Amino acid sequence: MTRRSETLRGKSGRKFNRRDFLKMSGAGLAGAAVLGATGCGGGGGGSGELIFSMGPDDAQGTMATLIKRFNDQNKGFKVTHRVMPADTGQYFDKLRTEFQAQSSDIDVIGGDVIWPAQLAANGWIADLTDKFPKSEQGKFLEAPLASVTYQGKVYGVPWYTDAGMLYHRKDLLEKSGFSEPPKTWAELKEMANKVVQDQGVKYGFVFQGDQYEGGVCNGLEYIWTHGGDVLDPNDPNKVIIDSPEAAAGLATEASMISSGAAPQAVSTYQESQTDPAFMNGTSVFARNWPYMYALAGTSDYPKVKPDQVGMGPLPVDDGNELASCLGGWDMLINANSDMQDEAWEFIKFMTAPEQMKFRAVKATVLPTRTALLSDPDIKKLPPVAQGSPAIRHTHARPVSPYYSDMSLEMQDQFNASLKGDVSPEKAVKTLQSNLERIIQQGS
Amino acid sequence: MASATTTTTTKGATGRSSRNLVLFYIFLVLFVLVSLFPLLWVFRMSITTKSDLLASPLVTLTAPPTSTSYNTVFGNPDFIKALRNSVIVAGTTTVICLFFGAICAYAIARLRFRFKSSIMTLILAISFFPAVAIIAPLFIQFTAVGIINTYWAMIIPDTVFALPLTIWILVAFFKELPRDLEEAAKVDGATTLQAFRKVIVPLAAPGVFTTAILTFIFAWNEFLFANTFIFDAAHYPVTVVIPNFATVYTIDYGSQAAGAVVVTIPLVILVLIFQRRIVSGLTAGAVKG
Amino acid sequence: MTSSDRESVSRVKSEEKKRRGGWFRQEFGNPERRMAYYMVLPALIIIVAIAFFPIAYSVLLSVTDSTITGFGSFVGLENYIEMFKNPDFLDGLKNTLIFTVASVTLEFIIGLGIALAINRAFRGRGLVRAAVLVPWAFPTVISAVMWRLMFQDQIGIIDEAAKAIGLISNPILSSNTLMLIGATLVDVWKTTPFMALLLLAGLQTIPGEVYEAARVDGANVTQRFFRITLPLLKSTILVAVLFRTLDAYRVYDLFWVMSGQQLESLSTFVFKSVRISQLLFPQGNAAAVFIFVTAFLIALIFIKVFGMQTGTEE
Asked: Sign of the CA dihedral C278, C283, C285, C291?
C-alpha cells in the first residue's frame, strides 16, 4: 500500500486544479461527440437522393420492383423507400411529428386518402394544381381524386384505391344450397349461421372491429348502408351522426356478434387477424380490402384456393344504396422539398398506367385510372370483375383538418358499441356531441 | 450460515427433510419454468413457418422447425441497422453515465460538503420522474436545438434517466471501499483526483463494471424516447423496429418472435455470466448492512 | 444507514450550525469542498437541464392553449378542469391505480415468499438466479409484443388455453378488464424476480444469531417472522416497494404495445394527447403535471409516513 502511494507521489505532486478537471470532462464530451458524429450520418436527403416515405411493401414486393425499375432509368437521382409503420395511424403520427419538428427530409409521401386535408391545412404538402391539370385529373376515379382535393386545390395524385368488399367461400355456400352471396345484412347473418351449422365451419363472418382506423371504416360502412352519415354532405361543419339510421347501422354491426354470425373476437380484429380467419378456411364470409384475394393459395395460406374465393360489394340494409369505405393511397409532395420536379417525375412514373397495371395484376392493388378498370388483364381479376360495384360506390371518410381527433372518437365509440359496452343510440349521441366539439374547437 | 442452522434443527428427522427437499426442488423447477416459459414459447414461434403459426397454437407446438423467420430478420437491413443503433445508443449512454456518475458518486460517498443530502434527493427525484411527462417540452427543445431525430435525442434523455441509477449504485460501492487507502494516499501527498483515479478507480472497477451492465441494459430497453423523438428508420433502435415488423396489411408474427429472440440473446448471455454481479449491483443501493 | 453514518451526520450538522452565515465562503473556501462541488455539478446540470427544466415548461404549457407548434395564451386552470371531465383521462387514472396497487401487492407477497424460500444454500442457486433475472432484463416493449402474441385470438397459446379450461369465454384482447388483468400478470412475471432478489439481499443481512436467540426464547415461526424478519427488513421493503410503485405508476410501454393502444393509463393518455391528437395538447401537459405531482406525493408519503430513509446522509 505504501509503495503504491509512493509511486503516486513520484508521478506528480501537483494539486488538482480546475484545468485538470475541465480537461477530463472535455475529453469525455469530445469522445461522445465523435461517437455521435460517426453515428449520425444516416439520414440522406440533399441532391441525388429522393426520399419516398411509405409503409412496408406488399407481400409480393411490387413496390421495390417498381422503384428499382425507376432507378435503373438513371434520371440523375435515386429514389429510396423509407419504410414507415404499417399501421396508418402510427405512420401519420410519425409523419406529422417530422413536419412539426420542421426536419423532414422526405420528398414524396405515400399518403393515406384521409391525410391530404390534414397535411394541406398545415401547409405541409405542395399544391399540385398546375402540374396536374384538369384534363389529366379527368382520367382518374372520382372518389380517390376527391381525397386529394382540399378547398378547390389538388394536392396529390391518387395512387391506388381500396374499397371494402365482402369475401365469400363459393364452395361452402354452394354446398348449403346458396347460389349467390347475400344482398342484405340480414341475409348475411342467416346464411352465415346456416353454413356454420351445416358444415361445422368455425366462424360465419369476420371483419375489422378493433379500435383503430380500420374499425372506423367498418363502422362507417354499416352506417352508410343504413342511410346514415357523419357530416352533412352539403355542409361539412354540420354533424348529423345522431340519427336513427346511424344507430341502426351500429346496431347491425353489433348484431353480427350477438347473433353468433361473427365471433366475439372480431372486436379485436384488424386485417392481419382477418386474413388467417378467412384464408385458413375458418370463416365463411369476410369483409376486407381487395389485397386479401392475392393471398389465397400462397405458401402462407395453402388451405383456401383462389377458385374457392368469391367477392363482391358489401350487403346493405334493405332498400339502401351500396356503400364501401374508400381506402387507398395518394402520392403527395413535401412542400419544403428542394426536389419538386424530381418528385413529380417519380410520381408520374408510379401513377402511369403501366406501373398501376403491374401492381394490380401482381398484388391485386386496384388502379385509380378509370380506363384501367376495363383493361382486359385487370378486368378479369376477381376484385374488379366481381367487386366493381363496390369500387364504384365508395364513400370517403369525413374530410377535415382535424380528422385524427374525429377518428379517435369514432374508433372509441364504434368499438364500444360493437362489444356491447354502450348501446348504438348512446354511441351516436356521444359522437354527435364530441365531433361537434372538435369541429367547434378547430374553427 | 443458513444451512448450518437447518442441519441442527432437522437432525433426526431425515425423512421429512428429504421430502421437504424434493418439494423445494419441485417448487424451484416450477418457478424457473414460469419465469422462462414465455421465452421458450416465443423461441418455438420463431422457428415455425408462417402457415403453421397462423393455424393454431397446437399446430405451432408440433410443427417442424424452420429458419425462415431468422432469414427474414437477418435479411432485413433495417433490423441490422437497428441492432447497430441500439448498440451505439446504449453504449454511448453507458460511457457518459459512468463518466459523470462516477465523479459525482465519489464526491457524495467520500467528500464532505453542504447540501449533500439535498443534492442526493434531487438526483433520486429523477428516478421518480414520469418520463412521459416531459416528452412534449423535450420534443420542442430538441427541435429547436436541431437534434431531433438523431442519436442524441435518445442518448441525452436516456442518460438523464440512467444517471440516478448509476450514481445510486456507485455511491453504495464507493462507500464500501476501505477509507484508509485513500487517506494514506493523501497523506503521501496525492490530490483528491489522484486518490480517486489511482486508488478508488482500480478498487471500484468491479462495481463500476456492474453499474455499466445495468446502465447498458436500461438504455438497451428504452422505448418511449426512441418512439417519440426518432422518426427515421435509419436511427430506430430494436425496441421500435420489432413491434413494427409487418408487410402492408399483415403483421409478421414469426419475424417479431425471431427479432425478440435475437435481441434477448445478448441480454441472456450478460445475465448468465454476470448474474452475481448484477444482483449485487441491484441490491447495493437498497440494502444497507 | 449504519450508526457510524448517523454519527457523522450529526457531527457535520452541528459543525455547520456553528458556522452559519457566510456558508458560501465556507464551502468554496475549502479546497476539498470546492472540489466536491465541481465533481457533483456536471451530473447535476445534466439532470436539471434535461428533466427539471422541461417539467417547468410543461407546467407553463398546461395553463395555456398552446399546440405543439405554437405557443398559446394563458387560460388558467381550464385545461385541468377539462382533463378531469375527460372520460379517457379518468379511465387512465382508474386503470393506473388498479394496476399499481395490484401489481405491487402481488409482486411484494410473491417476491417475499420466494426470497424466504431460497434464502438458504442449495445446489443450482446460480442457475435459479440467472433464470429469474432473464425476465427482468428483457425489454419491456419486447415482452409486451411477446405476451400480445400469446394473448391473440387464433394463434395465442394463453388465449387458447384459458378458453379450453373455461377460464374465459371471450377473447382476452376484446375486454379491457381482461387486458388489465393480463397487464398486471405480465408485470408480476417481469418484476417479481427483481423484488425477490432485493428482499433476499435484505434477508441475508439479518444475522443468524438473532433467530437463534429468538428460538431459544421460544418464539415460533410466525412470531419470528413478524417480530424479527419484517422489522429488520423494513428499510429494504420500503425501498423496493417505493421503486416498484413509482415504476408501475408511470406504466406506458406495456399498456401501449400489449393492448394495441387500447388500454388507457395516465402515461398513454399523455402520449395520445401530445402526440396523436391535434386538440388535446394542453390537456396532455396538464396530465403530465398531474402525474409528476402525484408521483412526488407518493414518494413523500413513503418517506414521511413510513419513515423511509433515502440513504443520502453521511
From this structure: negative
Say what the ipTM of the complex is. 0.79
Q: What integer pLDDT is reported at residue B8 of this predicted model?
A: 40
For residue A108, what is its C-alpha cell?
A: 414524396
Q: For domain A165-325+398-442, give the CATH superfamily.
A: Periplasmic binding protein-like II (3.40.190.10)
In chain A, residues under CATH classification 3.40.190.10 are 49-161+327-389, 165-325+398-442
Across the interface, whether the CB atoms of B160 and C50 are under 8 A apart is answered yes
Most confident of B273-277, C167-171, C182-186, C309-313: C182-186
Predicted TM-score (pTM) of this structure = 0.82
The shortest C-alpha distance from A283 to chain B (Å) reads 13
Rounded average pLDDT over B69-95: 92
Are the Cβ atoms of C272 and A408 closer than 8 angstroms?
yes
**CATH topology (fold) of A49-161+327-389:** D-Maltodextrin-Binding Protein; domain 2 (3.40.190)
**Alpha carbons A424 and A430: distance in angstroms, whole number:** 10
Tens-place pLDDT, residues C53-88: 888 888 998 998 887 777 788 988 999 999 999 999
Inspect the interface and report whether the beta carbons of C171 and A264 lie closer than 8 Å. Answer: yes
**Where residue A29 falls among pLDDT bands split at 50, 70, 90?**
very low
Please give the Cα distance from B97 to B162 (Å, whole number).
7
pLDDT at residue B269, rounded to an integer: 84
- Residue A97 to chain C, least CA–CA distance (Å): 8
- CA dihedral angle for residue C301, residue C304, residue C307, residue C312, rounded to 10 degrees: 100
Minimal Cβ distance to B224: which of C54, C145, C252:
C252
Which chain A residues are within 8 Å of C171, Cβ to Cβ?
Answer: 263-265, 268
Which tops the pLDDT comparison, A115 or A5?
A: A115
Computed over every residue of chain B, the mean pLDDT equals: 81
Candidates C12, C132, C189; nearest CB to B112: C12
Cβ neighbours of residue C221 closer than 8 Å, sequence gap 6 or more:
none
Instruction: Give the residue on A whose Cα is nearest the Cα of B181.
Output: A1
- The nearest alpha carbon in chain B to A298 belongs to B51
**Overall average pLDDT of the B225-233 stretch:** 83
Least Cα separation, residue C13 to chain A (angstroms): 28
- CATH H superfamily, domain C86-304: MetI-like (1.10.3720.10)
Q: How far is C-alpha C41 from the geometric centre of its chain's CA atoms? A: 26
Where are chain C's structural domains?
Answer: 86-304
Nearest to A75 by CA among A332, A343, A351, A355: A343
Confidence tier at B266 by pLDDT (50, 70, 90): confident
